[in-house]
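S1.2 Input.
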Amino acid sequence: MKKVLCAVITVMLLLTVTAFSRAVDSVEIPTTPSEIEDIIEEHQTVYRLTVHYIYYDGRTAAATYTAQLDVGAAYSVISPEISGYIPSTYVVSGVMPARNVEYTVVYIPIEGLMRPGSPLLTIEDYETPLGLGASIMNVGICIE
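S1.3 Output.
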């Protein structure tokens, strides 16, 4: 009985080793740095959030903010206050996707906003589209 049991265990071990060696033979091992980077990116769960702060003319306004966040993590970054300037976005916020994210906050001078005729202040207000007044538009209705 012991000899039969030993023979069965031996056969099972040989089958397991054979199956494992075939599985190992089919595994492709990366050999170049770009293949290794691709595999790392594929299985990555932490990504980089970067917020750049620049003046309207392209100069650096404040130090760049960076953070490493997990996929699905909420973030909220308050733009630093700079005397005499208004940021294009006061708070950069969202939920981290499965990729690196970069934002650029542009600082505009307050003086430029306050000058009459400034292109930064000019907002065309047409009241209603096409001068239709307070008409209620529905899909499928034609107004002539």
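S1.4 Remarks. Residues 2-38 form one domain.
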